[in-house]
Amino acid sequence: MHSLTSLFEAKSVAVVGASNDPHKLGGRPIAYMKRLGYAGQLIPVNPKSDIIQGLPAKRSLADLDSPVDLAVIATPGALVEKVIKEGIENGIKNFVVFASGYAEVGAEGDAKQQQLQELFKNTDARLLGPNCLGFINTETQLIGSFTTAMEENPLKAGGFSFAGHSGALGAYWLDKTIQADIGVSKWISSGNETNVQLAEIVEYLAYDQQTKVISLYIEEIRDADKFEQALLVAQQQGKPVIALKGGKTAAGALATKAHTNSNALNGVDYQAIFDKTGVIEVDSLSEMINYAKFYIQGHTLQGKKIGIVSISGGAGVMLTDQLENAGLSVSKFSPKLADEMRPHLSSFSTSQNPVDLTAAMVAEPQMLPNVTNMLVDSNEFDAVVIFMGLMGSIAERLTEGLLQLEKKPNCPVLLIWMGGRKELLSTISDNGTMVFEEIPELVSLLSKLN
Questions:
Q1: Is residue 389 helix, strand or coil?
Q2: Is domain 147-296 classified as CATH 3.40.50.261?
Q3: What CATH number belongs to 306-449?
Q4: Distance between CA atoms of 173 and 217, rounded to whole angstroms?
Q5: Which of 215, 193, 76 is nearest to 128 (CA)?
Q6: What is the architecture, at CATH level 2, of domain 1-131?
Q7: Is 317 exposed, middle or buried (0-12, 13-18, 19+ CB in 10 A)?
Q8: Is residue 99 within 8 Å of residue 60, measured between CB atoms?
């Protein structure tokens, strides 16, 4: 069992500073877990109440009948140290601290954080935080967090996990996964990393059976060797890692210092670590979501050869230029494939890559799946890209054709449909064909996968 399993998979939780108000810091975790059906034991702790949100409450951690696996501390910072001491004395091994005002605010806060760190010396107890938004485990609906990202929509359980130094950016990640209908496994905000650091979290996620894809927001790599080892474990376990790196400039590094007391420019060559361990570095959360979709849908990109099917000659030219400039190859059809395809095209089309189906497709929508499947079946390409625009009058028939496309993991089909109807695009995406609104999004994805 991993050293963080009892923290992130706790079967009993006490929320210290618990509140009857589901919108307050100490009320949100309880309200979320009640609403979502947390599978374990949930105990509110508050010195002034015996019942909180309908649950029997304890006055302190010392009053618990037996140690819980996890104490979520939602008290003001002035009380945190006292609560942790009490918890450790009573056999609790895992803590989450939301409170800020530690090393990120200067010398006085740094001294407070050092005192917090001392509490865990010579113990096997663990602390996530301080100055963090906590964590979420959708497998058991354990919500050790006060994030607002789940107020209106519960998370869909799945294989996509996040860990990072920014709780707010992580909350935006949560919102994007909800909007993209991607299932989440674990979501972890590490904050100031007094005790539990990102490297150990990555290693935990690498071994976590529910997690299939790991995404990270990184400010400081505090221990380069441990971090690299954790990423290598993820690589060995077949878990793709997608990362956003913050603080790459002097000004950005200064901002991270005030954020989580991170020293982003600490001399660690993060790019060399990423290259060695196969990490895909992205520039936005939207990019991160695209990569996750690609992997979670079971796709792979094994080479650089791209086949293009387009209803626009101009779009085919743009795609070709951008793919080639990104290091991919829009290679010629073999003579055999060109000959086999010719009877399926109109007299206005040329049997070449990219294939321009022309306006003839309006009269013959079946041309689209027929030609696309020929490219996929040819084994001449590592991916096939379709470009379409508008086509409102035959959109349903084109969608039917796209749903007929053969699925080959080693030759994914990706679709750009500009001006396509949202409900049809969702249906196509749900069927395993990735959908994009613009050419650059798709080109960026393919260029970093190879």
A1: strand
A2: yes
A3: 3.40.50.261
A4: 10
A5: 193
A6: 3-Layer(aba) Sandwich (3.40)
A7: middle
A8: no
